[in-house]
């Protein structure tokens, strides 16, 4: 079922000049979640989050070539306000996050700064009964540091972090999204999905979306899915 009408038949929203404008007062705070997972949290991130949410949901979402439990859509690279937002996020990640965490190794080298930032939109809309085993268990990202802006007013779940205790079985009987500790993964920290919150965290710590509730089992997972803007930090 499509998220909206097919892209070829629906009108496309114009990117307003200030769509990705940031709030005037941004107050990043560094936290160590559960005493284990460092994170940088910025609440009230965008100045116009509802307009951004409407714009994002109007984009064409496609399943990626890897086992993400949903679909992705490109961000408008031509947007000047997005370029400004990316520049700010990159700077604050280097200054307030990377400088405060233990040394991070990537491709055999110690990271001293990020120089690139990729961003897109993501929705989670796979029914719990349709998840593959890989989609269900916590994952690590292909980049050392990752970020999300949570763009739902309704409860759609934040991000859970796990400590791997054992090799997970190839299959399991429970199924569904993993939201609690198991014999293989111990839940150790979480980020709450406050609307318009930016969270930056280590992508190499096993994590997953905190996906639960009836919405993910009904048509709401298409009409009102879990929406985030994703940031991948690159050397």
Could you tell me the radius of gyration in angstroms?
18 Å
Low-pLDDT sequence parts: 1-13
C-alpha end-to-end distance: 38 Å
Portion in beta strands: 25-35%
Task: Give the overall form.
Answer: globular
Return the string of H and E elements.
EEHEHEEEHEEEEEHE
Overall domain count = 1
- Output the strand order for the largest sheet: 1-2-10-7-12-6-3
CATH-scheme architecture: Sandwich
Category from helices, strands and their pairing: alpha+beta
Detail the topology: elements first, then pairings.
Elements: E1 29-33, E2 37-42, H1 49-57, E3 70-74, H2 80-98, E4 105-106, E5 109-110, E6 116-124, H3 133-136, E7 145-150, E8 159-164, E9 185-191, E10 197-202, E11 207-209, H4 220-223, E12 226-234
Antiparallel strand pairs: 1-2, 2-10, 3-6, 4-5, 6-12, 7-10, 7-12, 8-9, 8-11
What does this structure look like?
The chain has 235 residues and is an alpha+beta fold. Helix content is 15%, strand content 28%. The strands form 3 sheets. A 7-stranded antiparallel beta sheet has the order 1-2-10-7-12-6-3, covered by helices on one side. A 3-stranded antiparallel beta sheet has the order 9-8-11, with no helix packed on it.
């Amino acid at each position: 079922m499509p998220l909206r009408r097919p892209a070829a038949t629906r009108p496309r929203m114009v990117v307003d000049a200030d769509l990705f404008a940031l709030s005037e007062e941004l107050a990043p705070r560094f936290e160590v979640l559960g005493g284990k997972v460092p994170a940088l949290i910025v609440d009230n991130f965008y100045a116009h989050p509802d307009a951004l949410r409407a714009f994002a949901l109007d984009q064409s979402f496609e399943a990626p070539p890897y086992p993400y439990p949903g679909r992705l859509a490109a961000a408008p690279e031509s947007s000047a306000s997005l370029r400004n937002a990316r520049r700010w996020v990159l700077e604050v990640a280097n200054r307030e996050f990377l400088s405060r965490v233990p040394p991070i190794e990537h491709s055999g080298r110690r990271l001293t700064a990020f120089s690139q930032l990729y961003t897109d939109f993501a929705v989670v809309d796979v029914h719990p009964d349709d998840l593959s085993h890989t989609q269900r268990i916590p994952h690590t990202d292909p980049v050392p540091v990752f970020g999300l802006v949570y763009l739902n007013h309704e409860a759609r779940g934040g991000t859970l972090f796990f400590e791997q205790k054992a090799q997970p079985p190839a299959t399991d009987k429970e199924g569904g999204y993993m939201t609690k500790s198991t014999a293989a993964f111990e839940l150790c920290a979480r980020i709450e999905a406050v609307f318009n919150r930016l969270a930056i965290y280590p992508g190499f710590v096993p994590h997953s979306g905190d996906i639960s509730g009836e919405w993910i089992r009904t048509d709401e997972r298409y009409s009102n899915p879990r929406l985030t803007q994703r940031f991948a930090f690159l050397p």
